[in-house]
Amino acid sequence: MAFELPSLPYDQSALEPYVSAQTMSYHYGRHHAGYVTNLNRLAAGTEWESAELQEVVRGADGAILNNAAQIWNHTFFWRSMSPGGGGDPSGAMRAAIEEAFGSVDEFRSQFAAAAVGLFGSGWTWLVADDRGLEIMQTPNADLPLRHGRRALLVVDVWEHAYYLDYQNARAAYVEAFLDHLANWEFAAQNLAAG
Ligand code: MN3
Predict the structure, then answer these.
(1) Ligand 1 centroid from CA 158, angstroms
(2) Cβ of 110: how many Cβ atoms within 10 Å?
(3) Is 136 helix (H, G, I), strand (E, B) or coil?
(4) Ligand 1 center from residue 99 Cα (angstroms)
(5) CA dist 17 → 12, 146, 165 (Å)
(6) C-alpha atoms less than 13 angstroms from C-alpha of 110 in its C-beta half-sphere
(7) pLDDT tens digits, residue range 70-118?
(8) What's the 27 CA to ligand 1 centre distance in angstroms?
(9) Model confidence at 1, in pLDDT bands (50, 70, 90)?
(10) Ligand 1 center to residue 160 CA distance, Å?
(11) Considering the entire predicted model, what is its pTM?
């Protein structure tokens, strides 16, 4: 069975004005879709051709891994945002953040600094492992699953994620993510699933 592009959890204009429909049309419709096209081409005739995406992400390497990981990462990223999201988490999610970082404000400060400071292309994650919650940086297509950690929330800081809307101002994009987009309900579900 071919790898497929998962549908978006909302309309392409749903995150405006923080992420424009134009950005979504390129980011989802060209970049995310492109990774699916590439993976199907690269995996054809290999041991990965009929594998589940998660198995490919766990076990493959090289270009097959990179494209599979980017499919996984983007699918997780769309779900890490929601219309009317952002602001402070509540309930168990808030308690876990406060335990790990001292306060929600301190978490925001550390997360923003990490996302703004990541050199080049990559992802900034909130992850969980047996030590608790941490902020994790991954370059390019890399992801927490490859490092024994569980993803709770992610922001894509590749330039294609924000350049049409924010140009070089990555800090403004990250601030919009934290203030208006971060899907804390999704993060809480991922926390509870552990
Ligand atoms: Mn991207």
Answers:
(1) 6
(2) 16
(3) strand
(4) 30
(5) 11, 34, 9
(6) 17
(7) 999 999 999 999 999 999 999 999 999 999 999 999 999 999 999 999 9
(8) 6
(9) low
(10) 6
(11) 0.97
